[in-house]
Amino acid sequence: DMAEPIQQLTRNNNPQERQSIPFTLIQRKEKLGDLLYEKRQYGKAKWACIKMKEKQYEQSICLGFMKLMRYICEQNSSGLYLGITVPIVTIVHTNEAHSAMSQAVTVAYYLPEVLQDEPPHPFDSDIVIEEWPATIVYSR
C-alpha cells in the first residue's frame, strides 16, 4: 500500500529538496556536546494534520505519518508531489485533567511556502488543513 509513496520519496530524496520550516531558536539544551533538544518558535502557518488514537502511542504516530505521506505523494487535489518539509511534528495529548498522556496524537506536516495561500485538499477525510498561530515546539 505504501510502495508508491516510498518510491516517490526515493526519487525525491535529495536533502537539498527538503524545506526546513522557518523558526526562531529560543533555547538549545546540550549535554557533553550532544544536542538533547531545541525549543523553537514557528510563525503562523497552515499545516496538514491527522489525529490518531491507536492502542500504542508508536502505532498512532506511524499510521498518522503514513497517511500524511500519501497526501504529500500525490493523493491530493493537485495530484502532485508536494515536497518534504522538516520536521514533521507530533503533538502528544493529555487527558482532561492534564495528569496523564492520552493515546491520541496529532501528526502534522507544514505546508511548503508556495502552498500556504492555497493548500491542495487531501483525498483522505481524516486529514485536515489547519492554520496554526505562532507555536512553540520542542525538537530533538
Task: Please explain how this structure is put together.
GO terms for molecular function: heme binding. InterPro entries: Reg_factor_effector_dom_sf, SOUL_heme-bd. Belongs to the HEBP family. This is HEBP2 protein. With 140 residues, the chain is an alpha+beta fold. It has one domain (19-139): Alpha-Beta Barrel (Multidrug-efflux Transporter 1 Regulator Bmrr, Chain A), CATH 3.20.80.10. It has two helices and nine strands; from the N terminus they run αββββαβββββ. It has helices spanning 3-11, 57-72; strands at 19-20, 23-31, 34-42, 45-53, 85-86, 89-94, 101-110, 127-132, 135-139. The strands form three sheets. It has a four-stranded antiparallel β-sheet with strand order 6-7-4-8, with helices on one face. Strands 2-3-9 form a three-stranded antiparallel β-sheet, with no helix packed on it. The mean pLDDT is 88.
